[in-house]
Amino acid sequence: MVNTKPHKIAIVGIENSHATHIIEYLNVTTEGKRAEVVALIGADDDHMAELLKLGGIVQRVDDASSLIGSVDGLIVTNRDGGLHAQYAIPFLAAGVPIWVDKPLACGTGDAESILAEATRSGTPLTSYSPLRWAPEVDDLVRAKDQVGDLQAVTVTGPADPASEYGGLFFYGIHCADVAQRLVPGEPSDLQVTRVRDSVIIRYRCTGTDVTLQLVKPDDHQRVPFHATLTGRHDVISTEIALGPGYVEPGIEKFLGMLDSGVPPVAYEEILRAVAVIEAADTPSG
Questions:
Q1: For residues 236 and 140, is the Cβ–Cβ distance under 8 A?
Q2: Which of 74, 113, 150, 234 has the most CB atoms at less than 10 Å from its CB?
């Protein structure tokens, strides 16, 4: 018999705006719930009170581990990816499936530890930028054959090396993850150039030149996310919009993993995106 009860989800990292989007989608707007947020982990402050009220959630805890055994899944969405391992690993060890919102970690050391525990325990784990599943990125994946033999892919977006939330990782992982979806594979010949307020990452992947242009926001706004495919006989270029509901396709991928037990992104692909940003975020010399 199919279990028709909604999956019980906990969220840690409510300071991220994604937490609000997730609660709205799962607890407020979605009919015929497949999952609902039943607990939040964090301090008892005004923002917490707002989210509890928004989602009709009654359980708030300070200690994430106290929820092990009472929830079916965990979403880790702290702004600082350096906090993700401490929350993810105990739940994975206990067999609780997890979506770690971007980035999986702020370095390959923590990322490998998280992935190793998922593999050891056999617990489904996933991590990605919501932009990976944006409609515009879906369109680019379908359009790759239209440009002819793919020569180059460029993904542009904001990032700040001095961000308090893990430097380039906080926003740069969006571009690295989109690039991995457009050109999956092991990066080679990676080069990093800093030009004024931008960090340019360039590498080769399966015969294609991949460039990430990470631009520090100014005092007025940040550069939009953008991707370009260049082939032998055409170029396709598009902005990746952060419109209403842009997190929802990513939520659906997590729900699909809860239902099937199959992660939507290969673990090695998740690690590659982290490794690319780590290489650019590490000061030379």
A1: yes
A2: 74
CATH number 3.40.50.720 is the correct assignment for the domain at 7-129+245-264? yes
The secondary element (H helix, E strand) that includes residue 117 is helix 108-121
Q: What is the pLDDT of residues 136-176, one digit of tens each?
A: 999 999 999 999 999 999 999 999 999 999 999 999 999 99
Residue 10's Cβ-count burial label (10 Å; 0-12, 13-18, 19+) is buried
The 10s digit of each residue's pLDDT in 93-132 is 999 999 999 999 999 999 999 999 999 999 999 999 999 9
DSSP 204-254: EETTEEEEEEEE---SS--PPEEEEEE-SS-EEEEEE---TTTTHHHHHHH
Q: What is the DSSP letter of 200?
A: E
C-alpha 223/C-alpha 30 separation (Å) is 32
**CA dist., res. 173 & res. 113, Å (int):** 19
Sorted by where each begins, the domain ranges of the chain are 7-129+245-264, 131-243+277-281
